[in-house]
Amino acid sequence: MKNLLTLLLAFASMFQFTLAQAIKVQGTVQDSQGKGIPNVTITINGQRGGTTSDKDGNFTLNVNSLQSKLLFSSIGYNNEEVALDGKSTIAVTMTNSESNLGEVVVVGYGTQRKRDLTGSISNVSANQIKNLSLTSPEQALQGRVAGVNVTSSSGTPGGSVNINVRGIGTISGNAQPLYVLDGIPIATGSFSQLGVGNQVLNSLADVNPNDIESIDILKDASATAIYGSRGANGVVLITTKRGKNQKTRVNYSGYTGNQTAWKKIEPLSGRDFQDVLQESLFNRYGSLYGNQEPSFYLGPDVHDNSYVNTNWQNEIFTTAPINSHDISAQGGNDKTKFYAGGNYFDQQGTIVGSRFQRYNFRLNLDNTVSEKFKISSGISISNSIQNRIQNDNNIYGVLSTAVLLASDIPVYNPDGTYGKDPTSSTENPLLAAKENFNKVFNGRALANISGDYQFSKALSLKVNMGADYVSLNESRFYPSISNAGAGVRGQATEAYNKSMNLINENILSFRKDFGKHGINAVGVASYQTQNFESIYALAENFPGNSIRRLSAGSVKKDATTSGSSFGIIGYVGRFNYSYDGKYLLSVSLRRDGSSNLGSTTKWGTFPAVSAGWRISDEKFMSNVKFINNLKLRGSRGNSGSNSGGLFASLPLISPGANYLTSAGLAPSQLGNPNLGWETSIQTDLALELGLFNRINIIAEVYQRKTNDLLTSRQLVGNSGFLSVNDNIGAITNKGLELGLEGTVVNYKKFNWNTNFTLTFQKNNVDTIYGGNPFGSGFMSWVQQGYPLSSFRGYRMQGIFQAQTDIVAGRDGSAARPGDIKWKDVNSDGVINSADQEILGTALPTYFGSFTNTFTLGNFELTAFLQFVGGNKIVNYNRAFAEGMNSVFGQFATVLDRWTATKPSTTMPRAVWGDPANNRRASDRWVEDGSFTRLKNLLVGYNFNQSALKKMKISSLKLFLQAQNLFTWTKYQGFDPEVSTFTLTNTAQGTDFLTFPQPRIITFGINAGF
Questions:
Q1: What is the Cα–Cα distance from 585 to 461, expressed in whole angstroms?
Q2: Closest by alpha carbon to 402, among 320, 321, 482, 310?
Q3: Model-level pTM?
Q4: What is the total count of domains within the chain?
Q5: Could you read off the pLDDT of 266-293 as tens digits, one per residue?
Q6: Which of 78, 100, 82 is nearest to 91 (CA)?
Q7: Which of 245, 254, 771, 988 could anchor a disulfide with 842, C-beta 3.0 to 4.6 Å?
Q8: Are 482 and 435 in contact (CB under 8 A)?
């Protein structure tokens, strides 16, 4: 009894001690815009208990000591640890996290709280991309945003990236979105004049990804209509980093690593190639040498090198370094804030001879002149050098020749000269990579300045002016030892291209709350011009290969100059209304005039309306605690495009129609004064759901119909022109977008965040001129009722195994056992073009991503998985390297070809010249283009600040990052992600020896001072 009494007294004393030590702490939690954040979880480091903030961000809790540390966590924000340091009242600001749920997002001509959005806008933050090996900012969007399909048109360093927001809505116009950098629409596309196959220069590679604070993608019409004539294909808003009211902080980030080819395709050995060559000749002519002398094919110097077995892919693919170094400073006071950053980026290609280097500097300034007037400015200067090689849809390209040059040709001859096959025009790939000179020198300056005057708390005026200057110099030289330069004793080409883009925007904004009523109105007047100039010249007959300038060539020709310009004027109005934060309405109207369109149709009007209902804020939802957000929103609106080309509506004349020694001009384009806008009408419906303050789900359906497509209409009769620009046809895109993100585990030092996106889409060509289908490329086909970039061809029905299987008159007189049996679709007894069918489309029917980030103490692991499916690829590489009809090199897969002693049901016989059309456009070359790729894997370690104080370092992170680490696909080519004709809307999905993307392994460091 005595012991029990003693124990009870002890517990009572401890309880009283605890009560005596409890200290009340109160405070507020807000976002970067000063808005209170509800439902923030607040815990005490090393102590039980905690609380959550109320709807206005206020909280109260008890602590044992005013020296305690509080931990603040909420879905959509970075965790914050705050030391009380003797204070009982605190204010905490939480910053947006990688979860893509930032409270404030950038919209056209302003910002808006995400809870108030009625349009479809997705966001990618700097935290999501800061450690990635990126050449340009649009690569950061790949797989991360529902409804946005991003593909690399080529793996060449500095190569272009293709982005389609909610499908392709044009046949011949530009299907890329509008890019707006710090409020200024910037010039995109390639200004290059010197072609290197289908490679396209990436104009956005001039923008340093490390300077980016966030990227917002406007997808539906209510969000894009405010950009009117340029918003039909979506809008990408890029916001760069700016200064803060803080002590100057310096940050270094950099990485170094290597790149390798993640896949090679096994070629035939030299000996096996000779066997196939002789077999093809025998099957055609009944002779090992056909109608040529044996020495032509099998002489002492040609295809008789049984000791030679060159794997040309091993010769051109190399381990290539990649390096990036970025240093920035950020700081300021209540008057002036600044951000300054410099970057050096160097990526050598995994194919010999290719390289991209960039030097970049940015300075952003914000100055508060007075309480009512602020000035903001920014300037970015970049200089890049790109070493280009011939490739991508180019039979003389480096990868092309590495596949098509026979493996029994030596790399070098005994005398040290490059090996060559005199029976073929295929060039030695090492000669093409090392001896041909092809460089691009690109300088770019982006500048903007704005003044913001606050008439009152509700009314403000912002005047924004920007300039985008591009200077592109191209230099190319083919030496006399190359195929292109041999007949003319060397050939040099120089091209100079200049572009100046100027814009002025005047933005009047009104924002005010009247009790439960909230109004946000914007009026804009915008004016933009763009001017182009170019010079081109060619020279031949050089005294040697060391002097590459035009002046050294004795024969000058093809010197040309050109210039063009266009302008756009726009007037915009937008009105947003909210009642009690629950009922949301947005109405906008833009009217644009474009110099590209006809005299009677220059102006277009683009209205949009959207509405939202925050169901979770209704009283009847107050007891449903596990739902923290439930919103229904919808929109409908118009946006447009005038991308039919410069002066597309005007009758044009061009020089070059010379007669004898007199210069002449000739009509080159028939005018169309009625040429008007492509107009997209888009409807969108979405449901947003937040659960347990941990999980966010969004489901969104859309339909986008584009009418009056800008394209060329074929003419008949005696007009003197073959076609005229006109508004013809319609395309519909439909889709379903799903997104899920949340915190799976948040326990002590372990955190697991996940993000999943999935998009289903369908494209359909509704109408084309006269209903007449047409071809576009090797197998690409445009036909009503089918998607753009469909493939059309014959279907295989096996291989003829005996002469008795061949039907006279149907299968052709040249068909023999071992040739392909084709499907007679219309059963008319003849195999002809009427038997061709649609064999699939290059456009994926679904795509998405799955990202998981794990943190345990100071360690971090992020895995980003990307997947694409439902699309087909025409593997045009195989039409050459499995053709078995010429002296082209062959893949080892032809070892499974049909022979009399080893019949095959899938691979035909080898036969010179292909008399039975085994290589014709057919499903033989159409493959499943679906793939799943471990796009990024990152392992990082963040050092404790206590360990860094002595070194005067505020933060330090080391990381190891892998890109394109693993790829799972049935596609037999080098890379399922690239496409030779990516920027041709009607001919996507054809792969003809396109530069594949590399596997990249880098080690990096982020350090703050």
A1: 23
A2: 310
A3: 0.85
A4: 1
A5: 999 998 998 999 899 989 888 665 555 5
A6: 82
A7: 988
A8: yes
